[in-house]
Amino acid sequence: MRVAYLTAGAGGMYCGSCLRDNALAGALRRRGHDVLLMPVYSPIRTDETDVSENGVLYGGINVYLQYRWPWISKLPNAVTKLLDRPALLRLAMRGAGSTDPKLAANLMLALLEGESGPQKVELDKLTDYLQRVDASLVHLPNAFFVGLASAIKRRVNIPVVCTLTGEDILLDTLDDAHRNRVLDLLRTKARDVDGFIGVTKYYGSYAREHFEVDADRLRHIPLGISIEPNQYIATTPQEKPFTIGYLARICPEKGLHNLVDAFEILLAEGRDCRLKIAGYLGKGDQAYFQKQRVRIESGSLAGRVDYLGEVDRAGKFKFLQEIDVFSVPTDYAEAKGLYILEALSQGVPVVQPDHGSFPELVEASGGGLLHRPGDARELAARLAELMDDPVKRQHLGRTGREAVQAEFTDERMAERVWDYFTEIHAQHMGRPTDESMKAVTT
Predict the structure, then answer these.
(1) Does residue 233 form part of some domain?
(2) Distance of CA 337 to the CA centre of its chain
(3) What is the domain extent for residue 182?
């Protein structure tokens, strides 16, 4: 079975979905499975070895131009292929800011419309690609691509699986009218998909309620990260200021301002602590971060906050090994939370808001504490609790690390995903699956 696994590039920034998809494809290949990781929109960016194909489907430049001026789709294929060149896409999307909500809604609708939409030529390229590589199953990168499923199944006659990745973040930026239009079309087109993957139970529940995905077409497959043998370095408590770490995209929704508020409270209580901040900063979020910099470079915070900017893989794990506790106190209900697993893999306990995927990740790992979302005073209290109790802090970190090693690795994720792909493919071919055989024999 050959799987064409589509993954959505994020315009030059690290994103949790790209990191997960690349780790998954790498693990599947190591297990001997035939998987082609094909980027859509833009090339992916990952801090591990990039195993994706050297090409892009549904390139961001073509998608935008064909929406704005439909006649662009009638240009010769050689011209539109030039616009999909990875180097050009990287250049065009470098430093891209936030997308206007109305434009985002219209692009979502255009994609969901599939054959009847303005990007029909891009769909033709996709189905041609699937036929050329002789794919047995195709994976769609998120729910906004479900409008392609009907044409893929009719033209290529292969099953379609889609991973749900946190589409609510974009949906919630839309006004009610646009949001309802997108959701109505998404719900209709989702019926053509053979199976969905929910990376957390929380987001699976969200999809059942908001996207009307049937429970029998939805499989919960937890996130997984790659753990290298020499990546973890055991440390012993040292006489140093208690250090809190934030490593995620720097933007309002990730809640850096909440952590700065809590840190200020800790300092006001006379506590000796430091804050380390790292992560991708996009052009559209620079004004937001500048407000935070004014705060951290003046008053009681001055000299106690380190900003490292964007870090590579080695820098990421060095960062995690230098902190005592990790927190990304998001304002929104996070669908994934890959950075939680990365922190726990280094034995660093987490303090997270009690919403989205965080409660189940903390419960499953036993590696952290929860606080009321948006409550800086309670966040400060949870951080202080771990500051005052090093034994508890070490216990949470050790328990969390052991849980990640047991249940949240890329190999474990790959095993579960391939089992699901095999099951979906067998159903498409009309063959009995292991599960159906068990039902017959019992």
Answers:
(1) no
(2) 8
(3) 2-226+411-437
* Domain assignment of residue 28, yes or no: yes
Same domain (yes/no): 166, 262: no
Q: Is residue 153 scored above 50 in pLDDT?
A: yes
| Neighbour count for residue 314 (Cβ, 10 Å) | 10
Residues 6+ apart with CB under 8 A from 76: none
Mean pLDDT score of the chain, rounded to an integer?
Answer: 89
The mean pLDDT of 399-425, rounded to a whole number, is: 97
pLDDT digits (tens, 9 = 90+) for 27-54: 999 999 999 999 998 888 888 999 999 8
Any domain includes 388: yes
118 assigned to some structural domain: yes
Nearest-10 crossing angle of helices 101-112, 176-190: 20
Say whether both 10 and 41 belong to one domain.
yes
* Token reading at 395: 């216990």
pLDDT, tens only, 106-148: 888 888 998 888 888 889 999 999 999 999 999 999 999 999 9
| SS3 (DSSP) at 6 | strand
User: Scanning the structure block, which residue is given the tokens 């407000």?
Assistant: 291
Residues 162 and 183 in one domain: yes
Identify whether residues 132 and 214 lie together within a single domain: yes
* DSSP class per residue in 402-433: HHHHHHSBHHHHHHHHHHHHHHHHHHHHTPPP
> Which residue reads 């949470």 in tokens?
396
Helix (H) or strand (E) holding 329: none
Q: Indicate the pTM of the whole model.
A: 0.89
- Total number of domains constituting the chain: 2
